[in-house]
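Final report, Chapter 2: Outcomes

The project's central promise was a pipeline that accepts a single protein chain and returns its three-dimensional structure in a standardized token representation, suitable for archiving and comparison. That pipeline is now operational. To close this chapter, we reproduce one record exactly as it appears in the project archive, with the input sequence first and the structure output second.
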Amino acid sequence: MIRVCMVCLGNICRSPTAEAVLKSLVAAENLGHEIEVDSAGTGAYHVGEPPDRRSAAAAERRGVRLTGRARQFERSDWGDFDYVLAVDESTRDTLRRGCPPGSEGKLYMLRSFDRASPPNANVPDPYHGGEQGFEQVLDLCEAACRGLLDEIKRSHIERR
């Protein structure tokens, strides 16, 4: 089982969106028995809260359902996940500071899996913006998650 954790700041907009997008792609390819997806935040601002209603509504319009409750990324998560994907440089830097020795190779920028994306590209935080920001987040997550799924299949599933 390959385990993936999407991480943003509060775990109510970007990381649950990326989680839901990847889960939908995994389900469409009948790979749920091979790949498990979760999300978390570096901060405890929204622990226990559902995904932001605007993120959920934008995703629902595309047939993607955001579920779960916000949680904070914990040190033990490094041992539980094969891929830890930061949505932006600030999140990556926070994760890197708490990364135990030997786990550095699990940390990636989410958009690094989108070949059309520039290096170290961020998924912008839509929380304080308009509705269009949530659509943009979905577009960026879909492109990155397609590339990530291809990488997981190539590196882990097809090699078996």
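Archive annotation: The longest helix spans residues 131-157.
This record, like all others produced under the grant, will remain available to the consortium after the project formally closes.
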